[in-house]
Structure formats: C-alpha cells, structure tokens
Design brief:
Layout: H1 4-9, E1 15-17, H2 27-35, E2 40-43, H3 49-62, E3 67-72, H4 83-97, H5 112-121, E4 126-130, H6 136-144, E5 148-153, H7 156-165, E6 169-173, E7 179-180, H8 197-205, E8 212-215, H9 221-229, E9 234-237, H10 239-242, H11 251-258, E10 265-268, E11 276-279, H12 282-290, H13 299-303, H14 305-313, H15 337-357
Helix pairs in contact: 2-3, 3-5, 4-14, 9-15
Length: 358
C-alpha cells in the first residue's frame, strides 16, 4: 500500500516503529523494521553522542533502507525546588531495594547539541522529534542536508506549528499512546494534551497539508484501516514492538505487558516528572500516595534512574517504568518485527475485504 507518506520517506509500507528512548529500540529492531519495508526508528534521546554515532554506523552497515533517529527537543535544565521532599520519598524506595540513598544534588547531562551534531555528521536520512520543534537554524541545517523531519504532536495547534516550522511528516499522538507523548507545553497542559487518537487524527488532517501519521493505541490492521479512513497516511506503533524478539526491554517488563489489559495503565509523572502512560505498579502508587510533587522533567527522571536500574537488576517490575499504550490485549508477543509488520498489513487487507463483502 503506497501512500504519500511512503513517497516522502522512501519506504514501502506506511508503518513507523516509534522511537522509544531508554534502550527498547535496539539496532536489530531498527534494521529489521526498515528491512521489512517500514520505518525503523532509533530512540536516541538518552544516548550519548558517541553511542548514537556507533549505533547509526551499525544500522547503515546492515541496511540501505531509510531509518530515523528520534531526539527530544526540550530544555534539559534541572529544577530542584522540591528536591529535599522528593529525595526523601525516593530514599524509602532505595531502602526497600537495598541500594545507597541519593545524593544532595541533581545534575542532568544536556547532550542535545552534540546528539544533533552526531545525527547530522552521520547523514541520518530522517530525524524524528518529540516534545517540541527544532530551532529555525537547525531546521535550515537539516533541510540543506536533505534530511526529512518527522514531528510528533498532540494537538491541532502543535501540528500547524510543526508544518510552519518545516516538518515533512506529522505524527499525531492520541492520549491512548504509551510512554511520553509529545505535548509541547507542559505548563499549559500539565497532564499532557489528553485528546483521544481517533478524535485527534481527522482534526489534524483537516488543518495541515503534509502527511499525517496516526499514533496511540493502534496495534493491528483494524486500527490501521480506521486511521486511513480518518485521513491518516500511515500509523506509528510503539507498544506493539516492545514485546518483539528484537526489543531491548527487560524480560520482566515484557511479562508485565503480557499480563496487562486496557485497564492497567495510568498517566503519571512519578518516574520522569513529565506525564507518561505506563502500567500501574507499586512505585507509582506509593509515590503518588505521599502527595509530594515530583520534580519537573528531566530532574525527576535523573533522580529515579538508580531505582529503575536496581529494579531491573533485581527482576522487580514494581519499581520499573513500564511504559505502555492501552491496547495490550492485541500484542503479538515474541514475534520478529518483520512478522508483526506482515500480520498488521494482512489484517488491514482482511478488514477491508470484510467491509466490502458486507
């Protein structure tokens, strides 16, 4: 199925694998998605510049097909106004896990300039951005290099801003989506812009000219067909690829996804300071029960890193950030990425056949 999205990005199938930061998007996953004719995306927002360069080189060694690198376009400046209270709560969790209590400061590395330069230097074909827009200067630099830009948005207003800034493709993320959505202004929308996927898509389509990709709770061919009916030119899936064979997430995380339902997820700032959808666990419940406000992103994310790392080492999902969308009953568990893509496409064709038959 060749949509205008495919022509813009140089892909065969109008499916984008979401650029999930934090290790989920391995080189194997990115390569195999792209080799299957869709668009693989390296979630590089938390990667050091040298790690991005190394990963991109490995991807290019294994595929000549287009792929993307996803970065966060937001301030990484720390805010520690509520530091003492938050650290006190987190130290209770550290004691339960048997790890040292936290230090008296928070310092988040701001590597965006170097990350961006690494992507430019390595001639990445597509840049995907979250949480905001590239600056005018960086957008001009990208355009001169012939790099395509995908911008993720959560409102019509953000979509219009993205198109005006030069985005080639817009991913409209509904509130069904797992993890952090790309709401630009968290001060204006403290819990993210909570507009459902199938409310958001047609309204964005009606207000921009560039291809629109639907994201948020889309897990199979039925959702893909519905997105096309609403005017989208493709879909982006994140959660569906988390339990794939190539995914880099912890096995306890995969098990939590497998046993979850549409009722399992909540929106929380407890882990990162920015609203994100994940499976409710003890960390979220106990932190929110204290009534202490988490530090803003990225400070809260930096402070909880040792807790999440220790929980993973101890196979303890109660203290891990289990990001997930709302469609987990539709997971295609432990399948290769290529097979997932083929099944989604086949499901869409079968759905269309049944509609035409009726």
């Amino acid at each position: 199925m060749q949509s205008s999205l495919c022509k813009v990005l140089g892909i065969t199938h109008p499916i984008i694998q979401a650029g999930m930061a934090g290790g989920a998007t391995t080189v194997d996953l990115v390569v195999n998605v792209s080799e299957a004719g869709a668009l693989g995306t390296l979630g590089a927002a938390y990667m050091k510049p040298e790690m991005i360069r190394e990963a991109v080189k490995k991807i290019k060694d294994r595929t000549a097909r287009p792929f993307a690198v996803n970065l966060f376009c937001t301030s990484m400046k720390d805010d520690d106004k509520n530091f003492t209270e938050v650290q006190s709560v987190l130290n209770c969790f550290r004691n339960k896990l048997g790890i040292p209590e936290g230090e008296g400061t928070v310092k988040t590395a701001d590597d965006f300039e170097e990350q961006f330069q690494a992507v430019i230097d390595e001639n990445v074909p597509i840049i995907s951005t979250a949480f905001g827009l590239l600056s005018e200067e960086k957008m001009e630099q990208v355009k001169r290099k012939g790099i395509k830009v995908i911008t993720m948005v959560t409102t019509v207003r953000e979509a219009i801003m993205a198109e005006e800034a030069g985005a080639d493709v817009i991913v409209a993320q509904g509130s069904d989506a797992g993890g952090h959505r790309s709401t630009f202004d968290i001060h204006e929308h403290p819990n993210g812009a909570n507009i459902g996927t199938f409310s958001l898509i047609p309204q964005v389509v009606d207000h921009v000219r560039v291809p629109v990709v639907a994201a948020g709770g889309i897990m199979d061919g039925r959702g893909m067909l519905a997105a096309f009916v609403l005017g989208a030119q493709g879909i982006q899936m994140g959660t569906q690829f988390l339990t794939s064979k190539e995914s880099g997430i912890h096995h306890s995380y995969k098990q939590a996804l497998s046993s979850s339902t549409e009722e399992s997820t909540v929106l929380t700032k407890s882990f990162s300071g920015r609203p994100a959808r994940g499976i409710q666990n003890e960390f979220i419940t106990e932190f929110e029960k204290t009534g202490v406000s988490p530090l803003p992103f990225p400070s809260q994310n930096t402070l909880t890193a040792d807790i999440r790392k220790a929980a993973a080492a101890q196979n303890n999902p109660n203290y891990m950030s289990l990001w997930s969308g709302q469609g987990t009953r539709l997971l295609k568990e432990d399948k290769p990425a290529e097979k997932i893509i083929k099944e989604v496409l086949a499901e869409m064709e079968e759905s269309l056949r049944l509609i035409n038959k009726n």
